Amino acid sequence: MMSSFNLLDGKVALITGCNRGIGKEIARTFVLNGAIVYANARRVGSLNILIEELPIHLRPSIIPTYFDVNDTNLVRQVFVQIHKEQQHLDCLVNNAGIMKDALIGMVTKKLMLELFETNVFAVMDLMQYAVKLMSKQKSGSIINISSIAGTNGHAKQIAYSATKGAVVSITKTAAKELAEKNIRVNAIAPGIIETELLSEINSHTMENLKLNIGMGRLGTTNDVANLALFLASDLSEYITGQTIGVDGAVLM
Q1: Active site residue 238
Q2: Residue 223 belongs to what domain range?
Q3: CB neighbour list of residue 47: distance below 8 Å, 6 or more residues apart
Q4: Could you tell me if 184 and 240 are in contact, meaning their C-beta atoms sit under 8 angstroms apart?
Q5: 134 within domain boundaries
Q6: Has residue 252 been placed in a domain?
Q7: pLDDT tens across 127-168, in order?
Q8: How far does Cα 71 stand from its chain's mean position?
Q9: How far is CA 174 from the centre of its chain?
Q10: Which of 38, 66, 129, 160 is catalytic?
Q11: Contact in structure between 176 and 202 (CB atoms under 8 Å)
Q12: 188 inside domain
């Protein structure tokens, strides 16, 4: 179920990785709650489905921004665009990321660099540009998508876990530095969420996964989006530096 309470009425948000999964649901939830969303994806046209699924009168509230989060020049350009068109930015959601597994002993520097470029360096890049706009208005909410792998660790994912753990550290440090500017920085650590990434898992493996989840079901993208909605809204105006799990009491 998609929430619609106008909690973000009049707010402007930039959300990365909106073409599918968690990012797509966060973008949709934000628009349904009154926000203007600059939705990011790499491939031109990949946001069409997101826009077409919205009620017709809300479709103009999604502004597609196609760029690779690793391209600093294009990242800068989108913030220039937001400043020119809206004069303010209320929320940044760093959702874009990549996940690749590798056992200890098989992790290459190439793999580590690839993961850190997207999952960590790009997050910092986007945060720094967002802070320039938010500092002027002395308000804002930055939401970084981490992972239960970053808070609890996960076998076969040492490099990926390292990047998501770095996101937690970045969040805590930035929250302390930016609190005096009334800019809040929080992280969400999803557990096992039912997205396209799980579509190739067979039913037997899926049932075994559920056995390790206290609530007995996989998480949904809506579960994550509702938390992002709360963190972006004024309901969480005294919450910063937190990493909140959305995992249904999963055992990792």
Answers
A1: no
A2: 12-246
A3: 18, 19, 39, 41, 62, 64, 66
A4: yes
A5: yes
A6: no
A7: 999 999 999 999 999 999 999 989 988 888 899 999 999 999
A8: 18
A9: 16
A10: 160
A11: no
A12: yes
